[in-house]
Amino acid sequence: MVREGLAYAYRKYSMDYDLDEKAALVAERGIHGFALQSPARYRLTRTLGRDAPDPECRIKGNINAQGARIYHMPGQEFYERTGIRPEKGERWFCSEAQARASGWRAARR
After folding, report:
1. CA distance 61 to 89
2. 13-31 burial by CB neighbour count: b if 16+ within 10 A, else e?
């Protein structure tokens, strides 16, 4: 299916179909024959939790996979693709001072 352009290679778990997908992409077969966003890319760019509920409080307090509490400022590299999930303890901040006082560190990029 991947070779025919009818499915994506899911590289997170295996690289077995990587070359098959690349061949389908070059040949513009199936789903690679037109502009389409892959499910993996969609998951990275979904909009859930990306818009601040209060326009004055736009600093994103994100918890990474290792549990580190990191805040992202508008304009930083990963700001746009970072979503806030309050159910996981993530939150919005109104100032850097508020984020630091709450125990969060600034994003490196």
Report:
1. 9
2. eeeebeebbeebeeeeebb
